[in-house]
Amino acid sequence: VSAVRCHPTDLNVVLFSGNNEVYKSVDGGVTWDITGGSSFEALNINVWEFLFHPLQPNIVFAATNLGLYRSTDTGDTWTEILPNECMTVSFKPNDYSVVYTVHFEPSVGIAKFYKSTDTGLNFTMYDNGWFAENTGFTGVELLGGHMAVTEADPNRIYVALAGYGTYNTNVELNGWIGLYVSYDGGESWVNNHGVI
Predict the structure, then answer these.
(1) Which of 125, 73, 118, 112 is nearest to 95 (CA)?
(2) Mean of the per-residue pLDDT values of the chain
(3) Is 181 helix (H, G, I), strand (E, B) or coil?
(4) Which pLDDT score, from 0 to 100, does residue 100 have?
């Protein structure tokens, strides 16, 4: 099992991902059915994170190994929004029209931050201050990361970036790139600690 999430208002509805499928229960986990429709079910998809819209819970996002998917019927069917791996997805606290994700870009081997302001229909990439393979880094593959947001400061976003490569010829990154923070809703980024 790679992800599990309960419906925010109907606790009989649960989604989980396992065995390269998405499963749904509508009876509190007593029975489960593969969901998503035949073409989706054939993808061999792994979900890293589900995200229900708190006020419109028929809208669900799935950050997966194959991209970011969006459902408008509580997971019965899914639409691809972004085409490559997304490990994490979050809403801006108290503004559910704003959705954040980290999306892998195969052409550069780096995952970048994306933001939507229309409840996840369209996304724009923001990389001002984001990780780049600058002097000292070699062979970096930034696979993605995990994100944290807070109601205490809705414009603040933390992303722990994961990947592999070498820094200064003798430091193997071993899955860790760095902790990046934005103070303006993802439009610019800083890495206060450097490589740890």
Answers:
(1) 118
(2) 91
(3) strand
(4) 98
pTM above 0.85, yes or no: yes
Sign of CA dihedral 141, 143, 146, 147: positive
Alpha helices in 28-177 (DSSP H): 38-41
* Residue entry with tokens 């499928």: 21
- Where is pLDDT greater, at 141 or 6? 6
Alpha helices by DSSP H, the chain: 38-41
**pLDDT tens digits for range 77-135:** 999 999 999 999 999 999 999 999 999 988 888 899 999 999 999 999 999 999 887 65
62: closest CA among 139, 134, 143, 5?
Answer: 5
- E-state strands within the chain: 3-6, 14-18, 21-25, 33-34, 47-52, 60-64, 67-71, 79-82, 86-92, 95-105, 110-116, 124-126, 137-149, 157-167, 171-172, 178-182
Q: What is the CA radius of gyration of the chain?
A: 17
